[in-house]
Design brief:
alpha+beta; four-stranded antiparallel beta sheet; 12 helices; 9 strands
């Protein structure tokens, strides 16, 4: 049977629906994993981010073209739009926090580093989970009742969860020194535009104009915050979508290129080989056979 791209869900197994600006949800890990025999099939969420806090068990998380192995105690980060799945060890236990992209962006007005936490899928080992466990439990309690200053309390607990996660993440290899807030916000806006336009072969100059900055300023911000040029960030997004299509659909290489705005299949093949380090066919054969989650 031909494969289609992985389904979009609201929460796993639930049909898509509009996401409230302040959507926030906490549930035990096994609530959805145990009925699924600990195998969560590949899927994505358009506007929802996940933060998993695991205190028991282990497993594998295929995320886009990568596969992350994890072992509790740890934190897993799954950004919105990431195609992901899970193979959990039976009995794995923990908490799943889901928040809307709009809620996250509102919080980043006070702390820009919150957005950088959800740039890519990641896992962080936990040496001391006591503080994170305590604030997650406080947030969970606040969400099940209504009391005076409820909204402020939810914001405070959620901010503490994200602060604690940032501090844990900063102890690992993924985190670099924080860039100035203004540059980080510019790059965040640039990434949003890339998400909207990456199939349209939009030039860096056109992006800069829409952002209201010069090409030089955009380049400086991207290098400072992301360690890459604007062109590299655009190419990275195209490459990611190409990998998703090659892994999760039955589109031919040429069809994949056309779907991403390439008018010449040969040019797309050269683009993919240059940036992925392998031809599209080689990538599909190697990574497709290695995926831990089967459609």
């Amino acid at each position: 049977m031909p494969k289609s791209l992985p389904p979009h869900f609201f929460l796993y197994g639930e049909p898509p629906r509009a996401v409230d600006d302040r959507f926030l949800h906490i549930e035990p890990l096994d609530e959805r994993c145990r009925p699924a025999d600990w195998h969560i099939r590949s899927h994505s969420h358009t506007e929802l981010h996940h933060l998993f806090h695991l205190h028991q068990g282990n497993g594998t998380m295929p995320a886009d073209a990568e596969s992350l192995e994890f072992s509790a105690p740890c934190i897993l980060i799954v950004p919105a739009r990431t195609v992901h799945g899970f193979l959990f060890e039976a009995g794995t236990a923990g908490t799943v926090l889901t928040l809307s992209d709009r809620f996250l962006r509102d919080l980043t007005l006070q702390e820009p580093q919150f957005l950088s936490l959800f740039e890519t899928a990641a896992q962080f080992p936990l040496r001391d989970a006591a503080q994170l466990t305590a604030v997650l439990e406080g947030l969970r309690r606040e969400l099940v009742w209504t009391a005076p200053a409820h909204g402020t309390a939810v914001n405070a607990f959620l901010s503490l969860v994200l602060v604690e996660t940032i501090r844990i993440a900063s102890q690992g290899p993924r985190k670099n020194q924080a860039a100035p807030g203004e540059k980080r916000q510019l790059v965040a806006r640039f990434r949003e535009l890339i998400e909207q336009k990456f199939r349209l072969t939009t030039s860096v100059g056109a992006y800069a104009t829409e952002l209201g900055v010069s090409i030089a300023r955009l380049r400086e911000a991207c290098l400072s915050v992301a360690g890459a040029t604007p062109v590299q960030l655009i190419h990275d997004r195209l490459l990611l979508e190409a990998k998703r299509a090659l892994l999760y659909s039955d589109m031919t290489v040429a069809e994949t290129g056309y779907s991403l705005g390439f008018s010449d299949p040969a040019y797309f093949s050269r683009f993919f080989s240059k940036h992925a380090g392998a031809s599209a066919i080689q990538f599909r054969k190697k990574r497709g056979s290695a995926q831990g989650v089967k459609e």
